[in-house]
Amino acid sequence: MRVTVTGGAGFIGSSFVRHVVRTRPDDEVTVLDALTYAGNRANLAPVEGKVTFVHGDICDEALVDELLVGSDAVVHFAAESHVTRSETDPALFERTNVTGTRVLLEAAVRHDVSRFVHISTDEVYGDADGGQRFVEGDKEPGDAQATSAYAKSKARADDLALAFRDRIPLNVVRPTNNFGPYQFPEKALPRWVTRVLRGEPISLWGEGDQVRDWLFVEDNAAAIDLVLTAAPPGEVYNVGANNEPEIRNRDLAHWLLGRLWDRGARIEHQLDTRQHHDARYSVDTTRIHGLGWAPSPDVWSRFEQTC
Fold it and tell me: Which of 72, 96, 198, 277 has the fewest CB atoms lying closer than 10 Å?
């Protein structure tokens, strides 16, 4: 299979690329990445010489059109992805996440790409503070459920991808909160580890009661690859760890302190002034389990491996 991976030098995309090279070494993998602040060629060092790298922007229509000639599949990770950053520059998120997705989809149709997997997010469902686990059909058209500028742009991109289901064999994947090696340190776990190693406090919004479904990035890569190779076209798949018991931000922070206590680490609570700070995310993963996928059984051992 000739696979084009957008955003393949980013955290989740590079994990997927390494997974494909490791499990299907005969596949031809091409990575398209703009190498913005969170993209890093070093993330692809373990597969250097085994993939083709193209430095470019998914909004560059001529480049994308040329790149997809002869491509069997597109796995689309490329996105602006930081919630806080989206509040100060929503236009950038709209350009990359929505316009870039449109450019890719239209080129995939022109070149009869036989498979397109669009990577969305569980944040398109909005806050699950009522205790529910969202199923795939709970995402309504539009972006009203999503709260942040980031999530709204991803909700619109999600809708756009689904609008192409009758024109190209396509699937949408909505993963939960990924963590693992190579993650850029603006995200919680690598940021906290970095701060502790510098002798700085871990900052929590409010009391740290926010619940996130922590999913090991390599488990996510395996799920996405399974969707690419085995899922019926047109289906949407939630991918999450469904941690039991659920993990609050303060639970993870205290766990981390217990392992790095000798560095003088401590927690610093901040007044939560963020306009859109969802209390809980949770998705039903029955459909992806039906394909034969399961997450790591012990998320805490994966935290240990990461730290």
Answer: 198
Report, as residue numbers or ranges, the catalytic residues. Answer: 122-123, 150
208-246 pLDDT tens trace: 999 999 999 999 999 999 999 999 999 999 999 999 999
Q: Is the pTM of this model over 0.85?
A: yes
Per-residue pLDDT tens digits for 172-214 = 999 999 999 999 888 889 999 888 888 888 889 888 999 999 9
